[in-house]
Design a protein that fits this description.
The chain is an all-alpha fold and 230 residues long. It is 48% helix and 0% strand. The radius of gyration is 18 Å and the shape is elongated.
């Protein structure tokens, strides 16, 4: 298995925690620079807590969404450190973003997810969603190492694209459709967005008070924008 997936999958592995801190801290602050995709509604939060209920898709088909859900779940899996990309609804973030900020990646997702299923079937004898975690990891390792064939332009490019967008879905402001229930921020110990930091909150002797709010809960930010009329 590749170093990248190994680091992500090992429970309580400090290397995974440090990697997620590096990527997640940037994501928590910077992954919201794109045009707002959609406000996370109370219904969406309820769905994230109620198991594998179906929800309306913006771009991907149900079959494509299933493959993407399985893929992001192995990129940042649930383990002893806490919930992963599936619970954070990273795939939901990606699907919604494909209508706007990530629209240029739509074709790459459609062809890449189909190629992933084809490669899983040819190399492991079953569709990607039907494989066990170890076989799914092996398939994704082949993608990362650029061993898998029939990807455009290649499998490593597809894997790296999905990994980057998964991290955005894990750590961006929940307003954009991912980081459900602030799972990503909790994982890396990010205390939440602050417009002003009081002197007592700058002390290194105690952790800062955790604020669970979207930036768009602040009056200074507008929730208008994006391609949706939600």
């Amino acid at each position: 298995m590749s170093n990248t997936i190994q680091k992500i999958n090992q429970p309580r592995d400090p290397s995974r925690r440090e990697m997620l801190k590096r990527v997640g801290a940037a994501g928590a602050i910077g992954a919201t620079v794109a045009v707002p995709v959609a406000q996370v509604t109370q219904q969406a939060h309820a769905q994230s807590n109620s198991g594998n209920l179906r929800e309306a898709l913006e771009v991907l088909t149900a079959a494509e969404s299933d493959v993407l859900e399985a893929m992001v779940a192995r990129i940042v899996p649930t383990d002893n450190n806490g919930p992963g990309a599936a619970e954070a609804r990273a795939a939901h973030y990606i699907d919604r973003a494909l209508t706007g900020p990530l629209a240029g990646s739509k074709a790459a997702y459609v062809s890449g997810l189909a190629a992933l299923d084809d490669y899983a079937k040819s190399s492991k004898g079953a569709l990607f969603t039907k494989l066990g975690a170890a076989d799914q990891d092996a398939v994704l390792t082949d993608l990362e190492k650029n061993v898998a064939k029939n990807f455009r332009p290649n499998s490593a490019a597809f894997f790296n694209m999905v990994r980057e967008h998964t991290m955005q879905g894990m750590f961006s402001d929940p307003y954009y459709g991912g980081n459900a229930n602030f799972i990503g921020w909790d994982l890396i110990g990010y205390p939440g967005i602050r417009m002003v930091v009081a002197p007592d909150e700058q002390s290194m002797s105690k952790p800062p008070k955790v604020l669970r709010q979207s930036a768009y809960d602040q009056a200074m930010f507008s929730k208008r924008g994006g391609n949706h009329g939600h």
